[in-house]
Amino acid sequence: MCVMKKAGRLLQRMEVDLPCVVTVGRETGELDCPTLAGWRWAQRQAILHWDECDLGLEPSQVGLQASPTQVVSTMVPQRKKDVEWLPDGEKFFAVVRESMRRGINF
Questions:
Q1: Can you say whether the dihedral through the CA atoms of 79, 82, 85, 86 is positive or negative?
Q2: Residue 92: pLDDT band by 50, 70, 90 thresholds?
C-alpha cells in the first residue's frame, strides 16, 4: 500500500505492507479539501471487507462472543428546554433574577 503525506512543502511517499493502520491528524491545522476528481475516484473504489476467516480467526474469537463486556441496554437521553424570546434587556434581567432566586446558575 502506498501512502502520501504532506510535510511542509514536501510530499512524502511511504510504502507499507498490509495489514496496516493509517491514522490521520491535523498537524498542520488545515485539512485539504478533496478535489472533484479525487472524490469521484474514491467513489469508484471497492471497499475491502475482511471477516474472521480472512484473518485466520474462529468466530468465537471476535465480535460479541469474544467481548469481555456486554451491553445490557442503551437509551438516548431526552432533552427538555424551555425557550423564550426576550425582547429587551429589562425582560432579560428579570428572567436572570428569577432564575437566580430559584437557584439556577448560568
A1: negative
A2: confident
How many angstroms separate the CA atoms of 101 and 92, rounded? 14
Contact, 2 vs 14, CB < 8 A? yes
Q: How buried is 23 (Cβ within 10 angstroms: 0-12 exposed, 13-18 middle, 19+ buried)?
A: exposed
CA dihedral 56, 61, 67, 68 (to 10 degrees): -120
Q: How far apart are CA 100 and CA 106, in angstroms?
A: 9
CB-CB neighbours of 20 under 10 Å: 9
Total-model pTM: 0.31
